[in-house]
Design goal:
single chain; 6-stranded parallel β-sheet; Rossmann fold; 7-stranded parallel β-sheet; 2 domains; 389 residues
């Protein structure tokens, strides 16, 4: 069928959390359907990456999203009672394009990627809603830790209304974890919904592949990988460096900590000044850092949805020392290789006791990840739902 795919990001390449899931969904959908992609781009490179999908998709509409201007307009609408998230991604031109496309093409269905794109759903076309995470819950969590809390709480409530209204109208709604599904069912019990877990590209994240930067093999380090402008990531590594790493270095002399990811905030960059800490910023390829690490750490205090950083570490056969917030995202079944560390003391004790003596590959961790985190198998849910339409 002719299928509309609406995304708040360019689903290409799969190098960032929000893009990874969208990339594999689009690639699965084009196998059976004529996909009309409508998405936002944040840069010229993003626009080029969207255009690269023209040879796979029936059509591609990409619009440049200028964040500063959009945020100013969204703040005004928020002050007038609107939802900040949907206002931030509001575009008259995109709305007109979708309406025009629906008038020209007999769309059999739409797949809506994230609550931010739900308002673009064309009237009369059945749709699947992939929320991925319950974003309203993230705003609620921010309200507990960030200023001004009342504004974060207000946005959480408004976005929750959006999630509820569109989920009730959708043919099916998908969440990335059982934790997200449970939260969602708590406020939208009648909306049809189920878990659709992420996967990993095991051919790409293959520890047997030759990788650049052989000099990393001589270093003894832990690694964290993630977009470092993202508040939970920045907050998590800052907490780890302050509360865990100095004590850990006293027990494991010479151990280093690599923070790998684009756009580190000023606070994250200052962590470079701490003994044994390296903030790399953006790198061409994260795999050498994961492959050469003795272990992966995931110390986030706020965590929603599937944790790609954890999946990629497991795919490379690495143990992952994880906070309670991270572990909860995988409940009720913690993946093989994920070691829970509820407190700073647990991080220190667990890493000191269970850290491999050198960078190595635990094949049991990798094989268990293959069984659970298969894109091909997990996306069967999406394909089956479209077939039922």
């Amino acid at each position: 069928m002719d299928l509309l795919y609406l995304a708040h990001c360019v689903p290409n390449p799969p190098d960032k959390g929000e893009r990874i899931r969208a990339f594999y969904e689009v690639n699965r959908l084009v196998e059976r359907h004529r996909v009309h992609l409508v998405c936002f781009a944040r840069s010229e490179a993003d626009e080029r990456n969207a255009r690269a999908l023209e040879n796979q998709c029936a059509s591609v509409y990409v619009e440049r999203h200028r964040s500063k201007t959009a945020l100013s307009l969204a703040a005004v609408r928020f002050g007038l009672g609107g939802c900040l998230t949907t206002s931030f991604y509001g575009s008259r031109r995109m709305r007109e394009h979708v309406q025009s496309l629906a008038a020209r093409v007999r769309l059999g269905a739409s797949v809506i990627y994230s609550s931010a794109m739900a308002p673009y759903t064309p009237t009369g076309v059945p749709f699947l809603l992939d929320l991925v995470d319950v974003d309203s819950e993230k705003w609620m969590q921010y309200a507990l830790t960030r200023f001004p809390g009342f504004a974060y709480r207000m946005e959480g409530r408004r976005l929750r209304d959006v999630e509820t209204n569109y989920a009730k109208r959708s043919h099916f709604t998908y969440l990335s974890t059982n934790q997200e599904l449970t939260v969602f069912k708590g406020f939208a019990p009648v909306a049809p919904a189920e878990r659709l877990e992420n996967g990993v590209d095991f051919e790409r994240f293959n520890p047997s592949l030759p990788l650049p930067h052989p000099e990393l093999r001589s270093r003894s380090f832990l690694v964290f990988v993630g977009a470092m402008e993202y508040f939970p990531n920045a907050d998590g590594v800052g907490w780890f460096v302050r509360e865990v790493f100095p004590k850990l270095r006293r027990q494991v002399p010479g151990l280093e900590f690599f923070i790998v990811g684009r756009d580190p905030t000023p606070a994250v960059l200052r962590l470079n000044q701490e003994d044994g800490v390296t903030v790399t910023g953006a790198v061409d390829d994260i795999r050498p850092y994961v492959a050469s690490a003795r272990a992966v750490v995931a110390p986030l205090r706020i965590a929603r949805g599937i944790q790609n950083k954890v999946l990629e570490g497991l795919a490379m056969g690495k143990p992952v020392f994880a906070s309670s917030a991270i572990c909860q995202t995988f409940a009720p079944e913690l993946p093989t290789g994920v070691i829970p560390c509820p407190t700073p003391e647990d991080f220190v004790a667990s890493i000191a006791a269970q850290l491999p003596p050198r960078a190595s590959v635990d094949s049991a961790i990798r094989e268990a990840a293959k069984r659970r985190f298969s894109w091909s198998r997990n996306l069967d849910l999406l394909s089956a739902a479209l077939e039922s339409l």
